[in-house]
């Protein structure tokens, strides 16, 4: 039964479509390089400065708040400057000085945003449009598989996930954690 449920969850929650995969070329110099983790405060400040200059930045996500769509230190995201924000966009926002979150926009009320992590069952963050440092344009999976955020299947799965009742999301997340 557990395997059956795990297969259903993988089908429902894993937003990879083999037919639309592209590859990020991994430079030969980066192969075998030891991973170093930097504190988010300093690192994401530098990332937001690059994005403010109009550059795209790719970095590994840390934390579990965006499960099941982004996994801690497994997935990378491409962050880009934004012109418009929509409900459902994953954004990097500075919700307090030096405190950044990569969460999805849940509500937009004028210039006020409500952010919520896909894996967070209760808490939300509030910020203004000016606090948004960049918007996620691509999810990059291990092996260089790239999934653009405007992929219709991904959008449909995110909407499906967010419509689930809290008790079902809690159960799915519990099983997901046990199967990864």
Give the SSE layout.
Blueprint: H1 2-13, E1 22-23, H2 40-52, E2 57-60, E3 76-80, E4 90-96, E5 99-109, E6 112-116, E7 125-128, E8 132-140, E9 145-148, H3 152-163, H4 166-179
Antiparallel strand pairs: 1-9, 2-3, 3-8, 4-5, 4-8, 5-6, 6-7, 8-9
Which structural category do the helix and sheet elements fall into?
alpha+beta
Apparent shape? globular
Return the CATH architecture.
Ribbon
Oligomer: single chain
Instruction: Name the CATH class.
Output: Mainly Beta
Number of structural domains:
1
Q: Give the low-pLDDT segments.
A: 16-29
Helical percent range?
Answer: 25-40%
Specify the CATH homologous superfamily.
Answer: Umud Fragment, subunit A
Q: What's the CATH topology name? A: Umud Fragment, subunit A
- Largest sheet at a glance? 9 strands, antiparallel
Beta strand %: 25-35%
Radius of gyration: 16 Å
Q: Mean of the pLDDT scores?
A: 82
Treating each run of at least 4 consecutive H or I residues as one helix, how many helices? 4
Termini gap: 16 Å
**N-to-C series of helices and strands:** HEHEEEEEEEEHH
Total beta-strand segments = 9
